[in-house]
């Protein structure tokens, strides 16, 4: 494949990711930046039956937020996204709404502490409801110091077994970014799943190399022993 085609595919991959930000009206700096592709894995209970649907965030209608909000006497920052899901049509014109709330502490630069998803009927999903955060499966979207958060798939659990998946997630909050995109020198805290995977890879590679060395050494010793036996026989 030519380098030009690779570049085109790379640009398309970047362009396909959703991009959201919230700007502080007092400073003009971005406090929240979120990049990623959103998929909603929804579970609806209808009597004794369980219905499951996977829906993509398709068309953003409006983005709102607050860099200086207060909830329960705690300083928070909020991001609210109204959008049309994939499969939306004129038959069901009502939009969906996703709300994210970021908090901070002495140990964390930021963390998603709450979130809700309000859905409406679509041609693909014949049910609707409001999904709230599952405290037992709230995910690990958090970072320290001035770092951002990075994860191949960030999962936010919802009550009832539903989840919000953010693919190729890059997230920062409680920041002061001059612009609306991540700085080129931005540092990231990698999510637990990706960090664990990155640790496993070198261990596996090292084990394979060790096995290869042992096989080569055994082969060498066997070959040397055979050569000696052949030398004795010729004598």
TrEMBL record:
Signal peptide limits: 1-17
Compartment(s): Cell membrane; Membrane
Gene3D superfamilies referenced in this protein's UniProt entry, alphabetically: 2.40.160.110
Keywords: Glycoprotein, Membrane, Signal, Transmembrane, Transmembrane helix
Main location: membrane
Entry's Gene Ontology BP terms: establishment of protein localization to organelle
Descriptive protein name: Lysosome-associated membrane glycoprotein 2-like transmembrane domain-containing protein
Organism taxonomic ancestry: Eukaryota, Metazoa, Ecdysozoa, Nematoda, Chromadorea
Gene from which this protein is expressed: Cni-lmp-1
């Amino acid at each position: 494949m030519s380098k030009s085609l690779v570049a085109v595919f790379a640009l398309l991959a970047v362009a396909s990711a959703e991009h959201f930000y919230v700007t502080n009206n007092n400073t003009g700096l971005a406090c929240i930046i979120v990049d990623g592709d959103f998929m909603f894995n929804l579970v609806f209970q209808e009597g004794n039956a369980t219905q499951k649907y996977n829906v993509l965030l398709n068309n953003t209608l409006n983005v709102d937020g607050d860099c200086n909000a207060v909830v329960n006497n705690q300083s928070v920052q909020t991001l609210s996204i109204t959008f049309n899901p994939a499969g939306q049509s004129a038959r069901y014109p009502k939009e969906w709404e996703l709300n994210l709330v970021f908090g901070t502490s002495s140990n964390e630069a930021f963390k998603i502490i709450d979130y809700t998803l309000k859905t409406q009927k679509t041609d693909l999903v014949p049910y609707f409801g409001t999904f709230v955060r599952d405290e037992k499966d709230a995910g690990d979207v958090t970072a320290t110091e001035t770092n951002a958060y990075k994860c191949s798939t960030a999962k936010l659990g919802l009550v009832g077994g539903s989840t919000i998946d953010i693919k190729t997630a890059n997230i920062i909050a409680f920041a002061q970014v001059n612009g609306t995109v991540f700085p080129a020198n931005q540092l990231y805290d990698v999510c637990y799943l990706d960090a664990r995977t990155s640790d496993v890879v070198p261990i596996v590679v090292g084990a394979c190399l060790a096995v290869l060395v042992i096989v080569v050494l055994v082969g060498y010793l066997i070959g040397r022993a055979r050569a000696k036996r052949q030398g004795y026989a010729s004598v």
